[in-house]
């Protein structure tokens, strides 16, 4: 999902990284 979100919302890449950091 993170990859899809990154492709759909490249502007919110930091948000995705934050979510990945929380999950990981």
Can you characterise this structure?
- This protein has 24 residues and is mainly α.
- The protein contains 2 helices and no strands.
- The longest helix has 11 residues, at 13-23.
- The two termini are 14 Å apart.
- 0% of the residues are buried.
Q: How would you summarize the topology of this molecule?
A:
Layout: H1 2-8, H2 13-23
Short précis:
The protein has two helices and no strands.
Rg (C-alpha, Å): 8 Å
Unreliable spans? none
Largest sheet: none
> N-to-C terminal Cα separation, in Å?
14 Å
Number of helices: 2
Helix content: over 70%
Average pLDDT, all residues: 69
Q: Quickly give the structural class.
A: mainly alpha
Q: What coarse outline follows from CA principal-axis ratios?
A: elongated
Question: What is the H/E string?
Answer: HH
What labels would you give this structure?
24 residues, mainly alpha, 2 helices
């Amino acid at each position: 999902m993170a990859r899809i979100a990154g492709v759909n919302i490249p502007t919110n890449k930091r948000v995705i990284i934050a979510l990945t950091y929380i999950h990981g």
